[in-house]
Design a protein that fits this description.
This protein is 41% helix and 14% strand. The chain is built from 5 helices and 5 strands. It has a 5-stranded mixed sheet with strand order 1-5-4-3-2.
Length: 134
């Protein structure tokens, strides 16, 4: 006899967002990962930061092993009502910003990266021919 699957809403799942009670939404399914927090290789902060939203992208971006995916079956508690997840709550990776702390124009830095090795090469060739002729 198959048990009827429990369907949770996002507000219901979002209540489970701490180290004593942690649920995640991955691929439309709800998982209680509380007992796995201490054993997670990335640390519990990684899991806790993915609560209250669709964590599918977070999970997929890491490239979990088959064993990790199989482990999800043991943690499954139900399905998510997809109508309660708005597109703005779905996981989006943070945008990386250019780190240019000294405020040097990026074009100048790229030009230096190209010119400095050429100048060194030119000096080496010049030195070689100068020392060869004397």
């Amino acid at each position: 006899m198959d048990e009827e699957r429990k369907v949770y809403t996002l507000p219901e799942v979002s209540k489970h967002n701490n180290s004593k009670d942690c649920w995640l939404i991955i691929d439309g399914k709800v998982y209680n990962v509380t007992k796995f927090l201490d054993d997670h290789p990335g640390g519990d902060d990684v899991l806790l930061s993915s609560t209250g939203k669709d964590a599918t992208d977070d999970f997929e971006d890491v490239g979990h092993s088959k064993a990790a995916r199989a482990m999800l079956d043991e943690l499954y508690v139900g399905d998510i009502d997809s109508t309660t997840i708005s597109s703005r709550l779905k996981s989006t990776p943070p945008k990386q910003t250019q780190c240019n702390q000294d405020k040097t124009p990026a074009g100048f830095v790229k030009m230096l990266q190209f010119l400095v090795p050429l100048i060194i090469l030119g000096l080496a060739v010049g030195f070689h021919f100068y020392t060869k002729s004397t």
